[in-house]
């Protein structure tokens, strides 16, 4: 097989979300697994909707995920290339001027549907006389330009969907250039794929129909079409499309919530495939395991609960060095004089590193514990037995054995009131560690405050 050159081609009209990042990831994993190249193309021909902020944002998101690119370019810098392709197509008689207004096209569409015919453009513009054209021009109408499909079947062997066949007589000749001279995505994409020697076009299955027309445009412009792979779209755990929730599933949002890049990448790489959904520590490993053959035809289910699970597994495995920089920004940790012990103690109790802030607050912050009425005497006794100054490895054991013999309590009745009085929580890390981290003074203050 030739060394792949692939591209990810987002439009900078919004933040990247899990859906489009999955496309980027699949491109990257495929290319890198074969020693190939991954290009980042910015589809910003729509000058009104594209913004520099979104472009910066998507570069930042891809970088954070580790999806580095070998080359990058903007379509907005390449209009003369597209103009040249337009001229070439016109010369071949494959691009024709149309003067219908949107209302006229809509009327034609409705008529076709009411007659039980597919709403395919009737090519009326091909039969316009010179006078009719002159009349439209005199009215001030500007033509839009359609590509003349062959009417034959276009076939390709899709790397995900298998053999595909599109009857181009059943689809409308696509508009490539609008009346105001702006480009739709179809032509610039092909021009760039040819010039950058793209070997594989890998994208969502919402582009399958475009591929029929685009393959003909590839041929018309003298290139042969690249291989194609169209991946099923993402759905949520409830089986519904994700479109309404994509804002909350943007990469910068997930990042802000403390999710790890490899948890996101692992989930997106494995869902909808024959592999188990498991966390991987590197993109390289995901890449080694990647194959188009493993991708199924059914939509891939994106379940946030799985993301939490994978993230918690990554976090629980993190070394103190991994977490140090991430924990750096947590103000509550300033009171912590033993970061390794803090991390060791709480890591099994957090899903994201940022949740460590909550535990830092519980251990070092200005919180009060909880004491139920029936435990007041018990906690008062505990307060007496707490070490005066230094908490050691033995302190918790000594405290609880003292209380056991003094009060006759054991099990949950012994431990839970202490946990609640010290942390205000019913669940959490091992109490011997909690006591060490908290220190004698803070532990006393907590219990005292809870008793008052
Ligand atoms: N800008 C297009 C999109 O985001 C690119 C599609 C393609 O990969 O060809 O849908």
UniProtKB/TrEMBL annotation:
Tell me the keywords, alphabetical order.
Aminoacyl-tRNA synthetase, ATP-binding, Cytoplasm, Ligase, Nucleotide-binding, Protein biosynthesis
Show the Pfam families listed in the entry: Anticodon_2, tRNA-synt_1c
**Family in the record:** Belongs to the class-I aminoacyl-tRNA synthetase family. Glutamate--tRNA ligase type 1 subfamily.
Check the record and name the InterPro entries matching this protein. aa-tRNA-synth_I_cd-bd, aa-tRNA-synth_I_codon-bd_sub2, aa-tRNA-synth_I_CS, aa_tRNA-synth_I_cd-bd_sf, Glu-tRNA-ligase_bac/mito, Glu/Gln-tRNA-synth, Glu/Gln-tRNA-synth_Ib_cat-dom, GluQ/Sye
Please list the residue ranges annotated as the Glutamyl/glutaminyl-tRNA synthetase class Ib catalytic domain. Answer: 6-307
**Quaternary state and partners of this protein?**
Monomer.
Its primary localisation, in coarse terms, equals cytoplasm
EC annotation? 6.1.1.17
List ligand-binding residues for ATP. 244
Motif 'KMSKS' region extends across 241-245
- Indicate the segments forming the Aminoacyl-tRNA synthetase class I anticodon-binding domain, all copies: 343-451
Q: What is this protein called?
A: Glutamate--tRNA ligase
Ranges spanned by the short sequence motif 'HIGH' region, renumbered to the chain: 10-20
| Catalysed transformations (reactions) | tRNA(Glu) + L-glutamate + ATP = L-glutamyl-tRNA(Glu) + AMP + diphosphate
Where in or outside the cell it occurs: the entry states: Cytoplasm
Function description: Catalyzes the attachment of glutamate to tRNA(Glu) in a two-step reaction: glutamate is first activated by ATP to form Glu-AMP and then transferred to the acceptor end of tRNA(Glu).
**EC category:** ligase
Which gene is this protein's source? gltX
Listed GO MF terms? glutamate-tRNA ligase activity
């Amino acid at each position: 097989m030739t060394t792949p050159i692939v591209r990810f081609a987002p439009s900078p009209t919004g933040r990247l979300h899990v859906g489009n990042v999955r496309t980027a990831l699949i491109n990257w994993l495929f290319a890198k697994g074969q020693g190939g190249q991954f290009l980042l193309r910015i589809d910003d021909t729509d000058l009104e909707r594209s913004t520099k902020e979104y472009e910066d944002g998507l570069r930042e998101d891809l970088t954070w995920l580790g999806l580095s690119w070998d080359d990058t370019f903007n379509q907005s810098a390449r209009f003369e290339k597209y103009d040249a392709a337009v001229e070439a197509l016109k010369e071949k008689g494959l691009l024709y001027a149309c003067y219908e207004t949107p209302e006229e096209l809509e009327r034609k569409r409705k008529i076709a549907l009411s007659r039980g015919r597919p709403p395919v453009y009737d090519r009326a513009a091909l039969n316009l006389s010179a006078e009719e054209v002159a009349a439209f021009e005199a009215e001030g109408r500007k033509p839009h330009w359609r590509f003349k499909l062959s009417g034959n079947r276009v076939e390709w062997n899709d790397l995900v969907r298998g053999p595909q066949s599109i009857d181009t007589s059943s689809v409308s000749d696509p508009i490539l250039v609008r009346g105001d001279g702006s480009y739709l995505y179809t032509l610039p994409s092909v021009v760039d794929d040819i010039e950058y020697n793209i070997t594989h076009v890998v994208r969502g299955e919402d582009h399958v129909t475009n591929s029929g027309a685009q393959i003909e445009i590839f041929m018309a412009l003298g290139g042969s079409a690249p291989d194609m792979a169209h991946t099923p779209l993402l759905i949520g755990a409830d089986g519904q499309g994700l479109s309404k929730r994509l804002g909350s599933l943007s990469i910068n949002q997930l990042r802000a919530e403390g999710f790890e890049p490899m948890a996101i990448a692992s989930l997106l790489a494995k869902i909808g495939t024959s592999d188990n959904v498991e966390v991987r520590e590197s993109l390289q490993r995901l890449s080694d395991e990647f194959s188009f053959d493993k991708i199924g035809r059914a939509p891939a289910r994106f379940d946030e609960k799985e993301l939490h699970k994978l993230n918690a597994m990554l976090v629980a495995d993190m070394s103190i060095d991994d977490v140090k920089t991430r924990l750096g920004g947590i103000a509550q940790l300033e009171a912590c004089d033993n970061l390794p012990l803090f991390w060791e103690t709480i890591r099994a109790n957090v899903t994201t590193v940022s949740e460590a802030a909550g535990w830092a607050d519980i251990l070092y912050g200005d919180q009060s514990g909880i004491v139920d009425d029936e435990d007041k005497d018990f906690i008062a006794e505990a307060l007496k037995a707490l070490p005066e100054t230094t908490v050691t490895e033995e302190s918790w054991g000594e405290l609880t054995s003292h209380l056991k013999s003094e009060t006759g309590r054991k099990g949950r009745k012994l431990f839970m009131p202490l946990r609640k009085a010290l942390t205000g929580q019913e669940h959490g890390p091992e109490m011997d560690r909690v006591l060490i981290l908290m220190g004698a003074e803070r532990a006393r203050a907590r219990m005292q405050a809870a008793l008052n």
